[in-house]
Amino acid sequence: MRRTWFRGWVTQMALMAIALCVVLVVPLAAPSGAPQRPRVLITGARTISDRVAVTFASAKGKPTTDVHLLAFNDLHGNLEATSALTIYGKFAGGAAYLAKAVKDLQSEYGDMQATLLAGDNIGASPLANGFFHEEPITIASNLMNVDFASVGNHEFDKGATELLRIQEGGCHPVDGCTGAPYALADGGTSDVYPGADFQYLSANVRVDATGQTLFPAVGVKEFESNSGTDIKVGFIGEVLEATPTIVTPTGVAGLTFQDEAVAANRAARELRTMGVRIPVLVIHEGGFQSSPSALNGCGGNLAGSAIAEIASRLDDQIKIIVSAHTHAEYRCTITTADGVTRLITSASSFGRILSDLTLRINDRSGTLVSASAENVIVENALNTPAPGVQRIPDTSKEDPAVQAVVEQYVEAAAPLANQVIGSIQGDLTRTGDTEGESALGNVIADAQLTATQPAGLGEADLAFMNPGGIRADLLFDAISSGGEAPGEVTYGEAFTVQPFGNSLVTKTMTGAMLRSLLEQQFPGCGGQAVKRILQVSNTFSYEQDPAAATCSALIGRMWVDGTEVQPTDMFRVTMNSFLAAGGDGFTVFNQGTDALGGAQDIDALVAYFAAAGDTGIAVPAQDRIVAPTTP
């Protein structure tokens, strides 16, 4: 038998006031009163067979009970299992396959489990989910019997009022319940969107000066121990404090985002007053492994990550952290210099990995004895990925109820997927030239610059695009997906190129920062592990010498709008939210200031196609990255 409790929700009247509030400026630095801890030491498994377990207390002669936590994150509305979703040499992910993996473990563990998601369940979604206002993936998550969810930054893409509707239910105020009928967990259906059966938690998202949180700060689930006593496990849900810098201002209007450690420690104290001795932090913030990464590894780069810094300042009772946001996978132990050790996990993205944590608990005291974790790949195919190989579905690994939801919305979204948004005059490919510049990368960078150039939207001077975020080519003679003519591009094809739905972010950077950033494209420079060449807009060009012996010699002269860049020059620079957080090892982006969130990248690309009109988008010259010349 289990019971769940929620604390800290706001009244409906207070929530209605959110839309009327102004945008608040939130400092990114920790408050002066925030507790300070020494730097952390991070260790973890290096191979799949390694075991990461943390012992907190002796269990000798004491009755114990195991409680299991099933966790995933950053699903981003990925209903379908597609050939594009792979990890560690496997086709993986998709809602129906994740649901089957989750339900199998729920069946194995019975009442002794809690299922969690760590944010970005919605937002930045593929077409079949986004077209129906993020409702389908929420319905699928209901069918997975999720208990608690932290909010993620993408939960705020459409603002707090819409997020509250996702939680509480009701028809969309503009379109109505276009996703009906909605599948229910009891096997029935509803003509009205029913909302989330799980509870969103937001300990560090406040709606007013009294400290009232948007959603409950904490949730509690009770379990019956092997000895017949009640065991309480508490869950603290949070999102990264920097959310306002990577979400459009309207999405966070009226909200303040507090320092994560300060809010988590406050929530841990609240849980103690409720008799809860085991607080679990479910947080939409994370880190990256260094290359090569491992499914159950803990690469060194995590040591400098945001989640490690937060962990160094947490209440001693918070020993379990379920993290997210970076789309990375890891399981680690984090130990501060004063001897506090924590277990931390992350489960990649798109339902490709499921984290299975085991908490061994003292029946009498209700405290942790030990904890361990394993990341498991959610496989979905009878074959393995290879160039030109299409995935062959393994239907035995699908959950039939969720698969029915997937098919319902994929079929319903087909008319939009086949809508023509513009045309191209020739092939736009991801293939880089000798310097790493690609035609499609140039087009995407130009689109993002165009979207953020106007006053009030960033006033950008130049834009960068990460090559790994370009997932497919746009070919003039591509096989028609919906009856379009050669050269015509559909919305679905554009989505395939940019499926992540990252928000655009514009920051102020100096010429010296730009030089350091470009040096980070090369292995061994600024912590970069592999060569990654950023794609640049047509307002920017620079000299590159990849054969240079030193990092400082890799980059020569740089120009913005034809004027050579000086170290102290200031520019407004656009990048996607992934890069803005230091993704792909480009940590120099973190040095940018005065961040302003913008539209989603796919919207910028669609608008760029529309502006090209009937002539379509020409194949741009690849002349923005050039070899050094004598001045």
Please provide a written account of the structure.
- It is a single chain.
- This protein is α/β, with parallel strands linked by helices and 631 residues long.
- The chain folds into two domains: 4-9 and 56-400, Purple Acid Phosphatase, chain A, domain 2 (4-Layer Sandwich); 420-626, 5'-Nucleotidase, C-terminal domain (5'-nucleotidase,  domain 2).
- It contains 13 helices and 32 strands.
- The chain has an eight-stranded mixed β-sheet with strand order 1-13-14-16-17-19-18-2.
- A hairpin with a 5-residue loop joins strand 9 and strand 10 (189-190).
- The radius of gyration is 24 Å and the shape is globular.
- The termini are far apart.
How would a textbook summarize the main sheet? 8 strands, mixed
Q: Whole-Å distance between the termini? A: 77 Å
CATH-scheme architecture of the largest domain: 4-Layer Sandwich
CATH topology of the largest domain: Purple Acid Phosphatase, chain A, domain 2
CATH class of the largest domain: Alpha Beta
Tell the overall outline. globular
Radius of gyration: 24 Å
Q: Output the structural class.
A: alpha/beta
Strand order of the largest sheet: 1-13-14-16-17-19-18-2
How many domains? 2
Helix content: 10-25%
Average of per-residue pLDDT values: 89
Please count the beta strands (DSSP E, at least 2 residues each): 32
The CATH superfamily name of the largest domain is Metallo-dependent phosphatases
